[in-house]
Write a structure and sequence with these properties.
Helix content is 40%, strand content 31%. The protein has 2 domains: 60 residues, no CATH class; 167 residues, Rod shape-determining protein MreC, domain 1 (Thrombin, subunit H). The chain starts with a helix and ends with a helix. It is rod-shaped and about 120 Å long. A 6-stranded antiparallel β-barrel has the order 1-2-5-4-3-12. Strands 6-7-8-11-10-9 form a 6-stranded antiparallel barrel. It has 272 residues and is α+β, with helices and mostly antiparallel strands. α2 packs across α3.
């Protein structure tokens, strides 16, 4: 406190000048409207400039926060976009499932025996002739290709799976429609081969392969797998394409048998 009083005493002339100047300015502003108006305008401009600089400064320091919020919003939008894409794909699959159910008889069967590490792999299901199962019926699971029924008894049916070197399926590229022959080379139980696709066909890694619909056993667009590799065959005009299957044959518990009600009629007309 003594220190403050000492400072005031030592600088009393300066402080007195400041007080008198402030009083004079106050009297001048009060008694002169023109000067008051100009001073008010200048003060307003000065305060506006200060507020503007203050806002720019705050915006600068909030850039990191705003960028973080933008990134979060972009992530939310991307998540919503992926969700909508999956929903659209699910609707398409449901439409396909409804189409199969409308045009084919479906019977569910539990797999009681299955092989996947042989050249001629097969499955046995607990459905047979008593369930109207016959040979040459298509077999699917989750709208994905499994195989074709072969031998059928009263209570059981044998299925030749697509990882069987003796089975050949008509398949196509879902996007472009180019079709060829699907067959397994007996090496990897997760990968089959698609042949007879012309070299000029536009294909990409990740393209989906589905049934062509040209077979009298399977309807069109049953999913098979996706392209993981391809190369041009030597001395031919075709590509050799490797397909990773959607079905894991080492872990499959159920299967659905489908039958085309017009299969016999179509077979008859094809023979004629």
């Amino acid at each position: 406190m003594n220190r403050i009083i000492q400072i005031l005493i030592n600088n009393h002339v300066f402080f007195l000048f400041i007080i008198l100047a402030f009083i004079s300015l106050r009297l001048l502003v009060t008694n002169n409207f023109l000067f008051e108006s100009k001073l008010s305008t200048q003060l307003h401009e000065l305060s506006s400039l200060i507020f503007l600089k203050e806002k720019e400064l705050k915006e600068y320091f909030y850039l990191k926060k705003n960028n973080t919020e933008l990134l979060q919003n972009n992530e939310i939008l991307l998540t919503q976009n992926r969700f909508l894409e999956k929903k659209i794909e699910l609707l398409k699959e449901n439409n396909l499932s409804n189409k199969i159910q409308q045009n084919h008889i479906i019977c569910q069967g539990k797999i009681v025996k299955s092989t996947w590490n042989k050249q001629h792999n097969f499955m046995i299901i607990n459905r047979g002739k008593k369930d109207s199962i016959t040979s040459n019926m298509g077999v699917i699971y989750n709208n994905c290709l499994v195989g074709i029924t072969n031998n059928v008894s009263k209570h059981f049916a044998k299925i030749i799976s697509i990882i069987n070197t003796n089975l050949m399926i008509s398949a196509k590229l879902k996007n472009s429609g180019y079709y060829g022959t699907l067959n397994w080379d007996g090496k990897d139980s997760y990968i089959v081969q698609l042949n007879d696709i012309p070299k000029n066909a536009i294909i990409n890694i990740g393209d989906t392969i589905v049934t062509s619909g040209y077979s009298n056993i399977f309807p069109e667009n049953i999913k098979i797998g996706e392209i993981i590799n391809y190369h041009a065959e030597t001395n031919t005009n075709f590509l050799s394409i490797s397909i990773k299957l959607f079905i894991d044959f080492t872990n499959i518990q159920f299967a659905y048998i489908i039958k085309n009600p017009l299969q016999a009629e179509r077979s008859l007309i094809e023979k004629q």
